[in-house]
Specification:
The complex is a heterodimer.
Chain A (H helix, E strand, L loop, with lengths): L2 H22 L3 H21 L3 H26 L14 H21 L11 H7 L1 H11 L2 H22 L5
Helix pairs in contact in A: 1-2, 2-3
Chain B lengths: L1 H10 L3 H25 L4 H30 L14
The chains are: A mainly alpha, B mainly alpha.
Chain lengths: 171, 87
C-alpha cells in the first residue's frame, strides 16, 4: 500500500466513525464537538485534493461560525432535562434500513461509472503555477459572477431573516 | 457518510441533531465534489462547493433562528411533540 492510499484509508475510516459518533451521541454538545473533529479531517482531505482555499474556508466558516452558532443555540435552549429521555424516534429501525439501502445504492452507482468527461485545463501544474486562490478567484469572478452575486443576496436574506425570527417581540 | 446523515435526519428526536445531520449530508456532497473536480482537473466542483458552503451557512442560521422562535412558545425540541400544525 502506498502512502497516499494509506492516508486516504485513514481519512475514510476516521470520517465514517466520526459521523457515526455525531449522530449517535445523546448530548448535543458532544455531537458538536465530534463534528468539529470531523470538519478538521474534511479540511485536511481538501488539502490532499489540491483545494487549499476550500480547506481554509471549511475551517473558518464551518468550524468557526456554524459550529459556534450551534453551541450558542444549545446553551440558549438550556437542555439539561432533555438528556434523560430516549433519543430516537419510534421508527428508527426503518431509518437505519433506509440509510443502509441508500449506501448500497450509492456504491452500486459509483461502480457503474465508466464514461468520464474529458479532463479540464486546471491540472495540478496549472494550479500550482498560478496559485490556488488566484485560479479560483479568476473562475469565480468571470464565469460564475452571477451565482456569486446571488449567493451574496442569499446571505443578506439569511442575516435579516435570522434577526427578525429570533428577536424578542416588542410590545 | 451521506447515508449516516440521512439516518440521523430520520431517526433522532432532537431537532438540533437533525440540523447537524443536514450539515453532515452537505459536507459529504462537498467532499465528493472536490474529489471529482480534482480527478477531472476542473475548477467547477470547487466553485460549486463554495456556493454550497454559503447556502449551508445561511440555512443553519435561518433554521436555528426558527428553532429559537419556536422554543420561546413551546419549550421542547423533540420533533414528535411538535404537532401544533396537526388538524
Amino acid at each position: 500500500m502506498t502512502l497516499p492510499q494509506l492516508f486516504f484509508a485513514y481519512f475514510a475510516l476516521a470520517m465514517t466513525t466520526l459521523s457515526l459518533l455525531v449522530v449517535t451521541r445523546k448530548n448535543p454538545v458532544h455531537s458538536v464537538m465530534w463534528m468539529l473533529v470531523l470538519f478538521v479531517h474534511i479540511a485536511s482531505l481538501y488539502l490532499f485534493l489540491n483545494a487549499e482555499f476550500l480547506a481554509a474556508i471549511q475551517i473558518i466558516v464551518y468550524a468557526g461560525a456554524v459550529l459556534v452558532l450551534f453551541l450558542f443555540v444549545i446553551m440558549m435552549l438550556n437542555l439539561r432535562k432533555e438528556e434523560t429521555v430516549k433519543k430516537y424516534q419510534s421508527q428508527w429501525p426503518f431509518s437505519a434500513l433506509t440509510g443502509v439501502m441508500l449506501a448500497a445504492f450509492l456504491v452500486l452507482i459509483l461502480g457503474k461509472i465508466t464514461v468520464l468527461p474529458s479532463l479540464g485545463k486546471y491540472s495540478i501544474e496549472a494550479i500550482k503555477s498560478e496559485g490556488s486562490m488566484m485560479t479560483i478567484g479568476k473562475v469565480l469572478y468571470t464565469e460564475y459572477i452571477l451565482p456569486f452575486e446571488i449567493a451574496s443576496i442569499v446571505l443578506l436574506v439569511a442575516i435579516i431573516g435570522a434577526m427578525v425570527l429570533a428577536k424578542k417581540r416588542m410590545e | 457518510m451521506f447515508s449516516i446523515g440521512v439516518f440521523g435526519f430520520l431517526a433522532r428526536r432532537n431537532l438540533l441533531i437533525i440540523f447537524i445531520s443536514i450539515e453532515l449530508m452537505l459536507n459529504s456532497v462537498n467532499i465528493s465534489l472536490v474529489a471529482f473536480s480534482h480527478y477531472l482537473q476542473s475548477m467547477r466542483g470547487q466553485i460549486l462547493v463554495f456556493f454550497v458552503i454559503t447556502v449551508a451557512a445561511a440555512e443553519a442560521a435561518i433554521g436555528l433562528a426558527i428553532l429559537i422562535a419556536y422554543y420561546k412558545n413551546n419549550p421542547t425540541i423533540k420533533v414528535d411533540e411538535i404537532n401544533i400544525l396537526k388538524g
